[in-house]
C-alpha cells in the first residue's frame, strides 16, 4: 500500500517534471523562434538599408556619368560642321598637305575635348583623317563601316556606341555625327571616342560597380576583373550581333562565376560559385538600376557580412534587452507575490497570535478557577484531616488507655506473683521472730527481722520500679551529649565488670553527639542493658566482651549498639523480651521489668529499643536516639 502511494507520488513528480521540461522546451523553442524572427527582420532592415544606399550611389553615378558623357554629346556635330572638314570631305581627299593639316586639327581638338580619339570617315566607313595619325596604330586607312555608330550617323542621326577599340584594343564610348555638304548630303562621319577609364573612376562609393549592356555583358566596372563577364547567358542572336559589330574581344566574354542565392524584394543575394576564382569575397547584395544615358544597366555589389554581423549583434542585444525586461518583470512579480505572501502570512500569524492569546487567557482563567477549586478542596480536606487527626488523637488516647489497662492487668498479675511470695516469707519470718523472742533467742529473732527488712526492701524496690513503669507525667526531653550517660552507666557497674573480667571495647567510636533525651533516664537504660549483658556473660566461660558501636540509620537518628558475648536470646523468649515481668533469671535475681521500662523510657525520648542475636553468638541491643540537630544541618 505504502509502495503504491510512493509510486503514485513518484509518478506525480515525474509528470510534473515532464510538464516542466515540456514547458521549458516550448519556451526555448519559442524564444529561439522569436530570436530568429527578430534576426530576420533586423537583417532585412539592414539589407534594405544597404539596398537604399546602393541605389542612391548608383543614381549619383548615373547622373555623373550622364554629365560626363553629355560633354561629348555635341562634339562630333561641331567637328562635322567645321568648314575645313566639310570642304576636305567634299573634295578628293588626297592632298597630303591638307590631310596632315586636318590631322593636326583633329589632334588639337581631341586634346581640347579630352577624348581619346577623333576621326573622320567617308561614306564607306574608311578613315581619312584622325587625331591619332601619329600613333603606332593610327585609324587612318581603317574602315569602321561595321560599327553601329557609323551606321547611325550615315543614316543622318547622332550615333552612340560602346565597345572595344578594334585597332587600339582599348574600351571606349563612341559618339558620331554625319558630315554634310552645302546641299545637306551626307559625305562622311565624324567619330569621337571617349575612354572608359575616367568613366569607371567616377565610382567612389562602397561596393563593386558593374555596368552591363543589353546582353548582360559587363563593359564598365570599378574592378577590371569583372569586364566582359556575362551576368546571364548570351543568346545566339546576341552573339551574332557581337560578332557583326566587333564590339568586344569575344574570347574574353565568359559567364560570371556568381550565382543568385536569394531574390529579395528589391535586389538579390549573390555568392561566388564554388570552385571558380573568386570575384566576390562571400555573400553580396546585388542592386541594379537602369542607366538611361547609356541604355545600360548599372549594378552594385555590396558585401553583406557587416550587415549580417550588425543584425546578429542587434538581435542579441534585443534578445538580451527583452530577457532583461522579462527578468525584471519576473522579479517584480515575484517580489509582489512575496510581499503579498508575507503580508498574508503576517496577518495569519497575528490572527493566530490573537487566537492563541485569547486561548491562553481563557486557559489561565480556567486554570485559576481550577486552582481555586483545588485550593478550596484542599482547605476542606485539611479541615477534614485536622478533625480526623483530632479524632485519631482521641482514639490513640483511648487506645493507650486501654493498653494501659491491659498492662495494668498484666502488672497486677505480676505484682500478685512477685509480692505474694515475699509477703508470705515476711509473715513466716515475723512468726519465727516472735517465737524466737518468746524463747529469748534474740540473735535468731534479729536474723529473722533482718530477713524481713530485706524482703520489705525488695518489695519496696518492686513497687518503686512499678512506679517508674506506670509513670504518667510527661518526660522532659533535653539536649544532651551521648558519651556522658554511657560513661556513667559503665562507671556505676565498673566493679561488676571488672569482677567478671568483661572487656569493654569500641567506646572511642561513640561520638559525643547531641541527642534528645533525659540524662537520668538514659543512664538508667544503659545501666540496665550493661547489667543484663554482664548477667548473660556471667553464664559463659569463654571470653567476655562488651562491644559498643554506633549506626546511622538515617540523618536524624543515631543508634548505639551494645553487643555481648553471652548466650544470646533464646528463640522462645524473643517475642516476650520487652514484656513486663518477663525474666529468665532464677530466684530473686530478675523481675523482668528492666527491658520493659527501658523501652518505655526510650520511646518517651522519641527513640526506641530493640534486640536481636548476633550471627556470631551473643545478643545485641539497639538503642535509637533522635539527634538534636539533624545531620544535614550539621553539615552546613
Ligand atoms: P531481668 O533482668 O530482671 O530478668 P529484664 O527485663 O532486664 O529483666 O530482662 C528480661 C530477660 O531478658 C532476662 O531475664 C533475660 O532472659 C533476657 N536478657 C536480657 N538481657 C540479656 C542478654 N544480654 N543476653 C541474654 N538474655 C538477656
Automatic annotation (TrEMBL):
GO terms for molecular function: ATP binding; phosphorelay sensor kinase activity. Keywords: ATP-binding, Cell inner membrane, Cell membrane, Kinase, Membrane, Nucleotide-binding, Phosphoprotein, Transferase, Transmembrane, Transmembrane helix, Two-component regulatory system. The keyword Membrane applies. Its EC number is 2.7.13.3. Pfam families: HATPase_c (PF02518), HisKA (PF00512). GO terms for cellular component: plasma membrane. It is found in: Cell inner membrane. It is an enzyme of class 2 (transferase). InterPro entries: HATPase_C_sf, HATPase_dom, His_kinase_dom, HisK_dim/P_dom, HisK_dim/P_sf, Sensor-like_sf, Sig_transdc_His_kin-like_C, Sig_transdc_His_kinase_DctB. Residues 414-629 form the Histidine kinase domain. Its main location: membrane. It comes from the Bacteria. The chain crosses the membrane at residues 312-333. It is a multi-pass membrane protein. It catalyses: ATP + protein L-histidine = ADP + protein N-phospho-L-histidine. PANTHER family: C4-DICARBOXYLATE TRANSPORT SENSOR PROTEIN DCTB, SENSOR HISTIDINE KINASE. Member of the two-component regulatory system DctB/DctD involved in the transport of C4-dicarboxylates. DctB functions as a membrane-associated protein kinase that phosphorylates DctD in response to environmental signals. This is C4-dicarboxylate transport sensor protein DctB.
Amino acid at each position: 500500500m505504502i509502495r503504491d502511494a510512493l509510486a503514485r507520488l513518484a509518478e506525480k513528480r515525474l509528470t510534473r517534471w515532464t510538464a516542466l521540461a515540456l514547458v521549458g522546451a516550448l519556451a526555448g523553442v519559442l524564444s529561439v523562434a522569436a530570436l530568429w524572427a527578430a534576426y530576420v527582420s533586423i537583417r532585412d532592415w539592414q539589407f534594405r538599408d544597404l539596398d537604399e544606399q546602393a541605389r542612391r550611389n548608383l543614381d549619383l553615378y548615373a547622373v555623373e556619368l550622364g554629365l560626363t558623357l553629355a560633354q561629348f554629346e555635341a562634339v562630333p556635330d561641331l567637328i562635322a560642321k567645321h568648314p575645313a572638314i566639310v570642304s576636305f570631305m567634299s573634295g578628293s581627299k588626297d592632298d597630303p598637305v591638307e590631310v596632315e593639316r586636318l590631322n593636326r586639327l583633329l589632334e588639337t581638338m581631341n586634346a581640347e575635348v579630352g577624348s581619346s580619339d577623333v576621326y573622320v570617315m567617308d561614306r564607306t566607313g574608311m578613315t581619312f583623317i584622325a587625331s591619332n595619325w601619329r600613333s603606332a596604330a593610327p585609324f587612318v586607312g581603317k574602315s569602321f563601316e561595321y560599327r553601329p555608330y557609323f551606321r547611325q550617323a550615315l543614316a543622318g542621326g547622332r550615333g552612340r556606341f560602346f565597345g572595344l577599340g578594334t585597332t587600339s584594343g582599348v574600351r571606349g564610348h563612341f559618339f558620331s555625327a554625319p558630315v554634310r555638304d552645302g546641299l545637306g548630303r551626307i559625305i562622311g562621319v565624324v567619330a569621337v571616342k571617349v575612354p572608359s577609364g575616367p568613366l569607371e573612376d567616377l565610382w567612389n562609393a562602397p561596393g563593386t560597380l558593374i555596368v552591363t549592356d543589353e546582353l548582360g555583358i559587363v563593359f564598365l566596372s570599378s574592378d577590371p576583373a569583372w569586364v566582359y563577364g556575362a551576368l546571364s547567358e548570351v543568346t545566339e542572336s546576341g552573339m551574332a550581333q557581337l560578332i557583326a559589330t566587333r564590339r568586344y574581344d569575344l574570347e574574353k566574354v565568359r559567364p560570371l562565376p556568381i550565382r543568385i542565392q536569394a531574390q529579395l524584394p528589391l535586389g538579390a543575394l549573390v555568392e561566388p560559385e564554388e570552385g571558380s576564382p573568386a570575384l566576390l569575397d562571400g555573400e553580396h547584395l546585388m542592386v541594379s538600376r537602369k542607366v538611361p544615358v547609356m541604355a545600360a544597366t548599372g549594378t552594385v555589389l555590396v558585401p553583406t557580412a557587416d550587415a549580417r554581423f550588425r543584425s546578429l549583434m542587434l538581435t542579441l542585444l534585443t534578445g538580451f534587452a527583452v530577457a532583461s525586461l522579462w527578468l525584471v518583470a519576473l522579479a517584480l512579480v515575484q517580489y509582489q507575490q512575496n510581499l503579498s505572501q508575507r503580508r498574508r502570512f503576517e496577518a495569519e500569524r497575528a490572527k493566530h497570535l490573537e487566537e492563541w492569546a485569547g486561548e491562553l487567557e481563557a486557559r489561565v482563567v480556567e486554570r485559576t478557577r481550577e486552582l481555586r477549586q483545588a485550593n478550596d478542596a484542599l482547605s476542606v480536606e485539611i479541615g477534614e484531616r485536622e478533625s480526623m487527626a483530632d479524632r485519631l488523637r482521641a482514639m490513640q488516647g483511648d487506645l493507650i488507655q486501654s493498653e494501659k489497662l491491659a498492662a495494668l492487668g498484666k502488672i497486677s498479675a505480676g505484682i500478685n506473683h512477685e509480692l505474694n511470695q515475699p509477703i508470705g516469707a515476711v509473715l513466716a519470718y515475723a512468726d519465727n521472730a516472735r517465737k524466737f523472742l518468746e524463747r529469748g533467742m534474740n540473735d535468731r529473732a534479729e536474723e529473722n527481722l533482718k530477713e524481713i527488712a530485706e524482703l520489705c526492701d525488695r518489695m519496696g524496690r518492686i513497687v518503686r520500679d512499678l512506679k517508674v513503669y506506670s509513670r504518667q507525667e510527661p518526660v522532659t526531653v533535653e539536649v544532651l551529649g551521648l558519651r556522658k550517660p554511657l560513661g556513667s552507666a559503665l562507671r556505676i557497674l565498673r566493679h561488676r565488670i571488672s569482677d567478671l573480667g568483661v572487656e569493654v571495647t569500641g567506646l572511642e567510636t561513640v561520638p559525643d553527639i547531641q541527642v534528645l533525651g533525659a540524662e537520668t533516664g538514659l543512664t538508667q537504660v544503659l545501666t540496665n542493658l550493661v547489667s543484663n549483658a554482664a548477667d548473660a556473660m556471667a553464664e559463659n566461660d569463654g571470653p567476655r566482651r562488651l562491644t559498643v558501636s554506633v549506626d546511622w540509620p538515617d540523618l536524624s537518628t543515631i543508634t548505639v549498639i551494645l553487643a555481648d558475648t553471652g548466650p544470646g536470646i533464646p528463640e522462645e523468649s524473643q517475642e516476650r523480651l520487652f514484656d513486663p515481668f518477663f525474666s529468665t533469671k532464677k530466684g530473686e535475681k530478675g523481675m523482668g521489668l528492666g527491658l520493659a521500662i527501658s523501652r518505655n523510657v526510650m520511646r518517651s525520648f522519641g527513640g526506641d529499643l530493640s534486640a536481636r542475636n548476633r550471627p556470631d553468638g551473643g545478643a545485641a541491643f539497639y538503642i535509637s536516639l533522635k539527634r538534636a540537630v539533624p545531620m544535614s544541618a550539621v553539615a552546613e
